[in-house]
Specification:
Blueprint (H helix, E strand, L loop, with lengths): L2 H12 L7 H16 L11 H9 L8 E3 L10 H13 L4 E2 L8 H20 L12 H12 L3 E4 L2 E4 L1 H9 L2 H14 L4 H4 L5 H5 L1 H11 L4 E2 H11 L15 H19 L4 E5 L9 E5 L1 H6 E3 L5
Antiparallel strand pairs: 1-8, 2-4, 3-4, 5-7, 6-7
Length: about 300
């Protein structure tokens, strides 16, 4: 809630009140603010200001509100899990030779893309370009970077190899133990703006836990991506000030497009937490429908009453 609104509410509450001392007045204000911070807000979809504050500043350290499960109880089904398995298979016991620039080899990227997309989608996705380098298969490029940030894969003597921690996890827990490491690194260490190269809007990533809360609460049914955009902007209207002026698009339009791309598609769908379907159109006419997948409840546990 806006601080100006809170100050206005305090002023209204003070109307007609008489205090015998400054200490008594301060105690009244402190109690008012405490009640306010613990009261659910409509713009936060039932969260209180205090809960939202903790969502934003300590998303991994508030077990009374939310827990990130590790290891998972089942093998996760998600694009990033499939991609990591392809990379792990190629690394094997001997490692995977890197290019002179320290990237994945072209042949591996081509073969992995064919297996990931399958033949029909591979032809469609490579209709206008060939996969000649790692960044041409950007999904795999992102997976490798996140695996590195998670301390799972690194380069040694010109080859990609597993870290000792990764070998331990693979042997003991498999992807049920690897996935939470990838998830946390993507949320806290990987720069989401790198994927699309558009202007950064840091708060889109910073507020990831609120999006997961929205998906958990409203994701049983298919909803348009605009529903989640609206909820995000209603909760954080000042985020539009993070966007630099554009001669064509309004700040709100730019925030909406970044939110859908980075949060719903490149995060929730990529990690198998949500299913996102496109209407098939291109450009500004493209819209999406979104609903949660079972993996969301397996990977993230909200300890909140959701009405």
């Amino acid at each position: 809630m806006d601080k100006d609104n809170v100050f206005s509410e305090i002023q209204d509450a003070l109307q007609g009140k008489k205090f015998t001392s400054i200490t008594e007045a301060q105690t009244f204000v402190d109690r008012f603010k405490q009640r306010h911070n613990q009261t659910p807000c409509p713009e936060f979809q039932g969260l209180s200001p205090d809960q939202m504050h903790r969502f934003l500043i300590s998303p991994f350290d508030t077990p009374e509100l939310v827990s990130f499960i590790s290891p998972l109880e089942t093998k996760p089904e998600a694009p990033i899990a499939t991609l990591f398995n392809l990379l792990a298979e190629a690394i094997g016991e001997k490692g995977l030779k890197a290019t002179a620039n320290g990237n994945l080899q072209r042949n591996f990227c081509q073969e992995a893309a064919l297996r990931f997309w399958e033949e029909e989608h591979y032809r469609e996705n490579t209709r206008f370009y060939r996969i000649n380098k790692e960044t041409d298969f950007f999904d795999m490029h992102v997976t490798r970077l996140v695996a590195k940030l998670a301390g799972l894969v690194h380069k040694y003597q010109g080859r990609f190899i597993f870290t000792r921690e990764c070998l331990k996890l693979l042997d003991g827990q498999g992807m049920a133990g690897i996935y939470p490491r990838l998830l946390r690194s993507y949320l806290s260490r990987f720069n989401w703006a790198y994927w699309d190269r558009y202007q950064e809007v840091p708060f889109v990533q910073h507020s990831f836990l609120f999006t997961l809360y929205l998906l958990m609460r409203f994701g049983d049914d298919w909803r348009p991506n605009v529903f989640y955009e609206d909820s995000f902007l209603r909760a954080f209207p000042k985020v539009v000030t993070q966007v630099e002026p554009n001669p064509v698009l309004t700040p709100e339009h730019m925030v909406r497009s970044r939110y859908t791309l980075r949060t719903l598609i490149h995060f929730a769908a990529f990690f198998g937490l949500a299913e996102v379907k496109s209407n098939g159109k291109l450009g500004y006419d493209r819209h999406y429908c979104v609903r949660k997948r079972p993996l969301l409840a397996e990977a993230v546990r909200f300890n909140l009453e959701m009405k």
